Amino acid sequence: MSTSSTALADEGEVGHTTDADPDIAEATVRLFGDPLRAKIVRLLADEQMCTCHLVEETGARQSTISHHLRILRESGFVAAEPHGRYTYYRLRPEALNTLIAAIAGMAVQAQRAQTLRRPCT
Questions:
Q1: What is the phi/psi pair of residue 25, to 5°?
Q2: Mean pLDDT across the stretch 109-117?
Q3: Residue 77 sits in a domain of what CATH number?
Q4: Ordered strands of the 78-83 beta sheet
Q5: Under a CB-based contact definition with an 8 Å cutoff, are residues 77 and 95 in contact?
Q6: Domain interval for residue 87
């Protein structure tokens, strides 16, 4: 699979390749590579929140929260929905399911590879 993590999230592709797919690793890092971003993902798994809620829950600055939300939106894992003066953010379950399926496919591939060993020259 040679698509971006956004395409991974949007198109619902599942990686069945012969090599470990760097897009899967990149998408995983986009979600959990930063402790604050991982906390935002966990919070959004429970309910839709606006930036002010995330600032309150995490203690992080508004600009920092906005930065992480932008990364998550650009990666396709979070959607934004305006509601009056505020914008609410939610996780996109279809994007998470795609990532889970891709990781599960990689786990199957790794299981099969347990008996394969490239000879040294």
A1: -65, -45
A2: 92
A3: 1.10.10.10
A4: 49-50, 86-91, 78-83
A5: yes
A6: 20-107
Residue 56 lies in a domain: yes
User: For 21, which DSSP code?
Assistant: -
Question: What residues contact 60, with CB distance under 8 A and at least 6 apart?
Answer: 36, 54
Tell me whether residue 55 is exposed, middle or buried, using C-beta atoms within 10 angstroms of its C-beta: 0 to 12, 13 to 18, 19 or more. Answer: middle
Contact by Cβ (8 Å): 107, 20:
no
- Asked whether residue 119 is domain-assigned, the answer is no
- pLDDT of 92 over the 60 cut: yes
What is the percentage of the chain residues whose pLDDT exceeds 90? Answer: 59
Give me the number of domains the chain comprises. 1
Q: Where are the beta strands (DSSP E) in the chain?
A: 49-50, 78-83, 86-91
- In sign, the C-alpha dihedral spanning 42, 44, 46, 51 is positive
Residue 57 falls inside a structural domain: yes
